[in-house]
Structures are given as C-alpha cells and as structure tokens.
Design a protein that fits this description.
Chain B: GO terms for molecular function: 4 iron, 4 sulfur cluster binding; metal ion binding. The complex is a heterodimer. Chain A is an alpha+beta fold. Chain A is built from nine helices and 22 strands. Chain A folds into two domains: 260 residues, no CATH class; 99 residues, no CATH class. The longest helix of chain A is centred in the last third of the chain and has 16 residues. Chains A and B meet through β2, β17, β22 and α9 of A and loops of B. The complex binds iron/sulfur cluster (SF4) (2 copies).
Chain lengths: 397, 136
C-alpha cells in the first residue's frame, strides 16, 4: 500500500485527510495495526520548540531621502550585518548588544541581543535603526536614525541555517565548580543534567532517514508557512544509530526559511543564557506524509526508544575528547531523575514539550482545515555525510 | 493561626521606622523575613511572611496602613510571568523548595506556587526566557 503526495494533498484540499500528531499516532498504530493504519492515516504532525542559535533574518528597509547605502547598522543597539545589497541587513540571533559587557564580569547576563530584536519585530514592537555610511554619488546619505516596526519593512525573512537538530547531547558537569553553557547552568558534581529535544515529537526523530523531510519540504515555522531550503550546517548523518535507525547523538539538521510577517510571537522568543550569551527559541512544525507503512512505523517512535548521549561540559565537550558518560532514553530523562556513575541526577529540559505538542496540534488543524498542503522534496538530505574537524595549520604569526 | 506572605515598599520617609519590631511586639506576629533591601536612594523593600491569628493580622495591616508604606498581599517579591514562560523546565532543578514544578507529566507544563517560594532568586539566573523577575 502506497500513497503519493498528490493523493494526500487532494484529500487535504477536500477536507478529508486523516491527520494525527506524533503522540497520537503511537496509540493509533498499536490499536489498528500498521497496515490498516497506513491506509487510514495521511499525515503525522511533528514539532519542536527550543533554542536554535543558528537563526537570523534578512530585513529590507525602504529607501530614505536622500538614499543611503548603509554600511554599518544597529537595531536597538544590536549590530546587523551590512555586507549585502543596499538597505538590506542580516541580523543574527546570537549577536550581542553594543556595550554588553559579555563575560567580562562572569557570568554575564546577556539580557538583550539579536534573538530579542527578532522577537520584538515579530511582536510588532517599534525598534530603532541606527545606520552609518561612507556616502557615494548614488547614495549620498551618511547617517540615519529612525524608529520602525515590521510593517514598515519591505521584507522580513527569517533564514535559519541550522535548525531542528536531530537529537542532541545531554549536558552534565562533573567538575567541582558551576559552569554556564548553552544548555543552561550546569551545577557542580553532576547536580543536574539538561537535555534539549522534543523526543517522540521531534521532526527528524520521526523521519530518521530523511525519507520525506528534504530540500523543498513545507514546514510550519513559528506559525508562518516556510520551507526547508537546504541541508542544515553541521548536518552529519553518519552517526551511531539505535536498532530503530534513530541517531543516539546530534545528527541531521535543517536550513529553514519563512516570512516573519506571518509569524506568531508566542513561538519566537529571545533567550538569555547566563554566562553564555543570547539566542532565539523557535517553534517548528513539520508534517510527515504517510506514503507507506514503513514511513508510518518510523513515526511511532516513542520516548523510550530514543536514546541521547550524556557529555561532560566541563571537560569532554570543550576539549573535544569524544567521551560519552552514558546514554538514557527520553522516557528516563523525562522522569526527572536518572542514575549516572552511581549518583542520582535531577534532569530538566531546555526544549519545551508543551509548546511542541501545541504546535503539533496547530499544524494538525491547519492541515485538517485544508490550509496546509504538503510538498514533495526536490532533493533528499545526504545520508552518508560525516563531520570534519578543523585542523590548525600554518605558521603562527 | 494563619500565615500570610506580604511584600512592603517603604519610601525614604519611612525606612527608619522600626515597623517589623512593632509587628512582633504589638501585634504578636511571628515574622519570617525572606528578603530585605535598602537602595542607595534609601527606599526600602521587604518581603516576609507573618503568622498570627486573624484578628492580630487584621490589626497589623491597619497599623501598616497608617504609614506611607505600599503593602501587597501575596508573593510579589518574585514574579513568574505565565505568558513569558515557555514551559521548558530549565528552572525546576534550580528551585530548592519546588515552587516551580512540572505539574502535568502529559503536557509537561510548569507552574509557580508562590506560597512555596522562598525568594532565593535562583530561577532568575536559570530561566533563559526572562519569565521570572524580582520586584527589587
Ligand atoms: S525565587 Fe527561588 S524559591 Fe522562588 S521560585 Fe525562584 S528559585 Fe524557586
Ligand atoms: S526556565 Fe523559565 S521559561 Fe522555562 S519553565 Fe522555568 S520559568 Fe518557564
């Protein structure tokens, strides 16, 4: 039994598609059996919500009078990149605000940065543009300072080169002093552990071999209709996988883009990591078309079937030793405590299961209402790609 | 006996007055101070819990009302903004008394029980989303 994208889209358009969330599909297949369920179910919705540092946006300002080729720009004092065409800028989620003391007084607070600018824009708030230029014959203006909001822009396009990490490290700190990381505050002597994945709801854990999620796949990016435009940076599919094919460490990634003007503020949140820096948390939903029973079976993955690797962020992670302290399933991690090296360690998450669940349901209703059609990828994500290290060569100067 | 959490703001004119002493001596209240601060501008903030019988507590509140002091019933010293919270749970392990906890294992939503909060402020550093804040 197989279905095509066109058949599924026809059912969606006529309001007849059967759509289940990645959570619902587990019990459904248990009850109806794989073959029957594969006939009945058309789409499974998956989602994730968590910090995705590799996020940013291109903004196009209308031209001022006289015109200006902005060469340096700050939005709410956060620097934007200007090495592109006139009045376009790119602002990245991890950019710090001008004059942020960073970690000069460790641990820094990092209260506001690129991620917060993006959040403010999506929320419709007024922000300030300050731009400088050297002045040219065709663009004579040299300085600009003005308030604007997202509606004043011609385009506000989110472009995220590395989102939706397929599984991720679990962070712990075996040293005797507290450390500050992108996985949050890790207390000394393994007094806590942090994971960051939506587990059984996560898109790439429900499609571990990228059978349906590829370049060109339609996604729900913070409420806007977006697409996967490339494999994500650091995409590394050649990793150890469990018997079910699910990677046991960080693996595939997706590069996503969508129109910020259509996004919902609830799913675009600036984040401040004490002692580490700023970022942006995003909500992403991806529909998986049930083209055949095998694809369906992959979507029935449960927290207890997905393993994640625990890494010591005080030494092994920064020193790149490759050492893994242990592996736990998401079911164990979600229970709130695990036992590692003879010690009971409390576990919490950085990604939000509750928001991921909400996105699965929102996407489900958009598909059921016939508003969200699926697209067949034009290109598959690489399946045999490893990850290089950087070798330091050349004479030191 | 009942216990009430209160948060007081004293303008400069009132910071020198021994208000807590009187709560204990004249109104028989058991006082448990969580946090106190006098700013360089000499404004005072005080977050505390008082235990006593209803009558004494009512009288004590009337007494507080005679000063130029702003009284907030309940835990206003630490505020959890439900709308900013994304329910990640990063704060949970850092909150010693379990004021921030995961209530529903199914949806993994986090909730704040203000009666339990001891105002240690650990959540403020631990929350990446600025959902927790201190009034002073
Ligand atoms: S201030 Fe301390 S006790 Fe209160 S909620 Fe935050 S972490 Fe918990
Ligand atoms: S860390 Fe912040 S956002 Fe996350 S659950 Fe706690 S209060 Fe909510």
């Amino acid at each position: 039994m197989t279905k095509t994208y066109a058949e599924i889209n026809e059912k969606i358009a006529s309001g007849k598609a059967v759509v289940l969330t990645a959570e619902e599909v587990i019990a459904y297949v248990d009850k109806h059996g794989l073959e029957n369920a594969a006939r009945e179910v058309d789409v499974v919705t998956t989602a994730t919500f968590g910090p995705m540092c590799s996020s940013g946006c291109f903004l196009n300002f209308g031209h001022s009078t006289p015109k200006m080729r902005i060469s340096e720009a700050w939005i709410n004092d956060v620097m934007a990149y200007c090495g592109i065409a006139a009045v376009d800028v790119y602002i990245g989620a991890t950019q710090l605000r001008h004059n942020d003391p960073a970690n000069m007084y460790h641990p820094g607070e990092f209260r506001y940065g690129g991620g917060h600018v993006i959040e403010d824009l999506v929320a419709g708030k007024k922000v300030q543009l300050f731009g400088l230029s050297y002045g040219t014959d065709d663009y004579p203006r040299r300085e600009i300072r003005t308030m604007f909001d997202i509606n004043d822009l011609n385009q506000a396009i989110m472009v995220n080169p590395r989102n939706c990490y397929q599984n991720y490290n679990v962070g712990v700190n075996v040293s005797d002093k507290r450390i500050y990381t992108y996985l949050g505050i890790l207390r000394a002597k393994m007094r806590n552990m942090t994971y960051c994945s939506a587990g059984q709801l996560a898109p790439l854990l429900n499609d571990p071999y990228y059978a349906t999620i590829g370049v060109g796949t339609s996604v729900w990016l913070a409420g806007a209709r977006g697409i996967v435009y490339a494999q994500g940076t650091q995409h590394c599919s050649l990793v150890e996988r469990g018997d079910n094919g699910v990677p046991v460490e960080g693996a595939g990634t997706l590069a996503l883009t969508a129109d910020m003007k259509e996004m919902r503020p609830e799913f675009v949140r600036g984040a401040s990591f004490r002692g580490y820096g700023v970022s942006l948390a995003l909500g992403v939903g991806i529909p998986i078309p049930i083209l055949n029973p095998e694809i369906l079976r992959r979507t029935t993955v449960r927290d207890r079937d997905i393993q994640a690797s625990v890494i010591d962020y005080s030494t092994d992670y920064p020193e790149k030793t490759g050492k893994v302290l242990g592996r736990f399933t998401y079911e164990e991690l979600r229970s709130g405590t695990v036992e590692l090296m003879g010690k009971k360690v409390p576990v919490t998450s950085l990604s939000s299961y509750s928001k991921a669940l909400k996105i699965c349901n929102l996407l489900k209703s958009e598909i059921e209402d016939g508003h969200f059609l699926l697209s067949e990828p034009s290109q598959r994500l690489p399946l045999n790609q490893g990850m290089k290290s950087l070798t330091i060569t050349g004479a030191a100067r | 006996m009942i216990t009430k959490k209160i948060y007081l703001y004293f303008p400069k004119s009132e910071t020198e007055k021994p208000i807590v002493y009187q709560l204990v001596k004249d109104y028989n209240l058991i006082v448990n101070i969580f946090r106190a601060k006098v700013t360089p501008e000499e404004e005072g903030y005080l977050s505390l819990e008082v235990t006593g019988n209803q009558e004494d507590i009512t009288r004590a509140f009337a007494f507080l009302g005679t000063f130029d002091v702003v009284i907030h019933a309940g835990n206003k010293g630490v505020h959890w903004d439900e709308n900013r919270c994304v329910h990640c749970g990063a704060c949970v392990v850092h909150c010693p008394p379990g004021a921030l906890t995961i209530v529903d294992q199914g949806t993994r939503t986090v909730t704040f029980n203000e009666d339990r909060c001891i105002e240690c402020l650990a959540c403020i550093a631990a929350c990446p989303f600025g959902a927790c804040s201190s009034a002073f």
